[in-house]
Amino acid sequence: MTYFKTLILTLCLFGFLNFSEAHAINDDNEPDNYISVQIIPEKTNVSAGDTIHLAIKNTLYPKWHIYWINPGDSGTAPNVKWDLPEGFEAGDIKWPTPAKIPFPPLMNFGYEDEVTLLQELTIPANISSDPITIKGNIDYLVCHDICIPESHAVEFTLNDGNVDNSSIIQEAFTKLPTHKDWNATYALTAEHFILDIETNDTITNDHVLLPVDWGLIDNTATATITKTDAGYQFKKAVGDRDLAEVNDIELVINNDTQSFQFSAQKAGATTANTTDTPTTEKTYSTTILQALIYALIGGVILNLMPCVFPVLSMKALSLMQLQGKEEKKAQMYGLSYTAGILLSFGLIAGILIALKAFGAEIGWGFQLQNPIVITVLIYLIFAIGLNMIGLFEISGRIGNVGQNLTQKSGNKGAFFTGVLATLVATPCTAPFMATAIGFALTQPAIVSMLIFLSLGLGLALPYLALCFIPALRHKLPKPGAWMENFRQFLSFPMFLTAAYLVWVLSQQVNGAGVLYTLVGLIAITFILWLKRFNPSSKKLAITNKILIILTALFVIYVPFTLKGIDQAISAEKIGDNWSGYSSEKLSNLLSTTDEPIFVNMTAAWCITCKVNERIALSPQSTKELFKSMNVQYLKGDWTNQDPGITKYLEEFDRSGVPLYVYYPPRDQESGARPEAVLLPQLLTKGIIERALL
Amino acid sequence: MKIKLLSVFAVLAMVIALPAFASSPEIGKMAPEFTAVDSNGNTHNLSDFKGKKVVLEWSNHECPFVVKHYSVGNMQKVQEAATASDDVVWLTILSSAESKQGYVSGEEANKVAEEQGSKATARLLDPSGEIGKLYDAKTTPHMFVIDEAGMLVYAGAIDSDKSFKPESIDGATNYVMAALGSLEKGEPVEVANTKPYGCGVKY
């Protein structure tokens, strides 16, 4: 019975607090304490040399929580201190598997309702047979929207009666993570925490990763889990701790039915060229090789894009002028052209990598998020169109059929065709190359650069092949009058590209900006017309010159008048079945609702995005499916730079749009949301249905 | 050469036109620029303080951890020691959203500061949480130290004891004082990154 006396005494002591403000904010409906603590020894009748467990049972006021050993972004774990009689030893606290407790934009790890911590207690070799009362103190931080410290004086008595509480201890042990001696290594890239586990156990996609150490991961991010040869790989956005000081770490992974605790060793780490971890090294090199091959194939495909094809086909046709005897010349052209492309790709990639290194939240396609760049591209593509349709000629250089190709200008011309091809290809690279480029940007600088160059090489390859393989050239149609017509015809894809870019621009600047740009196009035409003019007098010639200069100044001035407007899709905007994306909105929906969520990241200049919307997302049947399942549809617009969206893209290893993510509804039994599903970049109605149903 | 010129121009335009991007703070990198209005209605830019060391202190006067440091005069003591030298600016940033714990108007902020006996240079009002999220401020207190060049040299806890009990302050190492001391001596900051402890910022 004395056990109960102790219990009552302990309960009485709950009211004893060091902090008066804990009471100050309580209103009538709130309790004096948000936690009640009970110390339950495994058994009260102990012998010398015994090792028993203590259960520290905490019962919490509804919706309030206390923290795990790693509290997450804020908060602090309970601090248990015993005033132990001589010879007694208390072990480390054994922490049950915590729950994720989101407070957007922060994430905490802790416990609600009820939690029992366990602690080992070693009884010394000599103890008296009299009752032994052990006192202690536990400091808690207990939080809901606000945090309150509670300091509880606690005690328990041994050798007083004979109560067996082993069932309580056993029950508490079932809530602890199971220890595993898995062979696990972790590596860190600039943006990711990557954990490789060797195991035969099954780890499903709904497991969450909880490091015991702070700052290793971005606590709010979602981990992606992939099956490897030896086990599983977890990948999660890296945290904000300087990790040089961290070595071996302790981790917990769990889902609703199982929870494992294990330690992991630091593998090679921050650079790609570490050689001390053969396993990661292997996966590394294969993925790099794959990315390089994809980039190369992607580059070849770029040749067919409406913005690139006309320029290149004209260049290719110019080769027909060179008959078999001019092998060397053709090869030089090919090499110059390739050099032009590689240099331009290298330059753009260099800028991108440098900006990333300085921490800029940008991705590929970033060029198209700037209205000035778009305007310059519009002018350039429009001017090429005018050239093709025959308004003006540039003899011996780019884009013409090549009447007077000289060795010198031919090589130079080829080089700048390469530069030009890269420039006009940029509107098309972003949407089609997202995967390879996304991978590239998460890699060390040298690997990124290789991938970009590989993409450039792919772009150069078809023309290069024409230059080096005469047999291919002979397959080209015979030159003739038809070429002039063909060239003129090809101006129309260029004009269409320009029109498309004007539309992209209209998503970024106001109406006046679009008007200025259009007037700029007319001004370019006017300049070219003035240049054709053959003035009959000196006076007229001077007027002509002045007009040209003035108009040219206007054309140059236009891009600098453009100011970006707010995103076309702002977080507040609401469509017929969607609303604008913001990270707060998403984390709110994730934590407070049970409904499935569909996230669509798009941009005005992204053709793939538009096609996907047309064929997969906008049809009535998809809208009805969304409605019937009560899908919360969020749409983010990356037309202009938006660091929040860039971050989100990076969580999924992407550096560009489109990105489609489906968050399945909360599992009613477990109360947790299953892992997010990443949908492919080319959507069909079927893909969406399969993902949702 | 027209096309050549055009191409060069286009590439140049890409380089020149690259705008400044916001970036999350990182030790050893430039601290993100911000503009804020203080409790007296004055506007401050971080860049106004170039050439001085800047301490950012996230605060919420009702948070027990903030109370821990103010109730026994510890935070004030650190503020006073830091700002004793003319080249240190101490900015207390209040990021609690309206209707959340710790939200104050400018006038209330001044009153709280007077009651606390705060020695901070200014109290910046950030109820939108914009600056807080820019700096990834997680807790109150959460401390940042920025050197004369505008580089972030320390981010994390105020000291080494994460307890909420004032008596824990005595034995604890104050990281902000240590960082300022190292800067003074022209030495690298030894502990540049710790886990901030406290209540979550009430965004």
Uncertain parts of chain B: 1-23
Total domain units of chain A: 4
CATH superfamily of chain B: Glutaredoxin
User: Strand arrangement, largest sheet of chain B?
Assistant: 2-1-5-4-3-7-8
Architecture of chain B, CATH level 2? 3-Layer(aba) Sandwich
The helix-and-strand class of chain B reads alpha+beta
Instruction: Give the class-level CATH name of chain B.
Output: Alpha Beta
Number of strands of chain A: 23
What would your notes on this structure say?
The complex is a heterodimer of chains A (693) and B (203). With 693 residues, chain A is an alpha+beta fold. Helices cover 42% and strands 21% of the residues of chain A. Chain A folds into four domains: 2-175, Thiol:disulfide interchange protein DsbD, N-terminal domain (Immunoglobulin-like, Sandwich), CATH 2.60.40; 179-270, Sandwich (Immunoglobulin-like), CATH 2.60.40; 281-370 and 394-494, no CATH class; 579-692, Glutaredoxin (3-Layer(aba) Sandwich), CATH 3.40.30. In chain A, the strands form five sheets. In chain A, strands 11, 12, 13, 14, 15, 16, 17 and 18 form an eight-stranded mixed sheet that branches. In chain A, strand 9 (132-143) and strand 10 (147-158) form a beta hairpin. In chain A, helix 5 packs antiparallel against helix 12 (482-506). Residues 1-28, 269-284 and 395-408 of chain A have low confidence and may be disordered. Mean pLDDT of chain B is 84; it is low at 1-23. Chain B has a seven-stranded mixed sheet, with helices on one face. With 203 residues, chain B is an alpha+beta fold. Chain B has one domain: Glutaredoxin (3-Layer(aba) Sandwich). Chain B contains six helices and nine strands. In chain B, strand 1 and strand 2 form a beta hairpin. At the A-B interface, strand 9, strand 10, helix 6, helix 7 and helix 8 of A face helix 1, helix 2 and strand 9 of B.
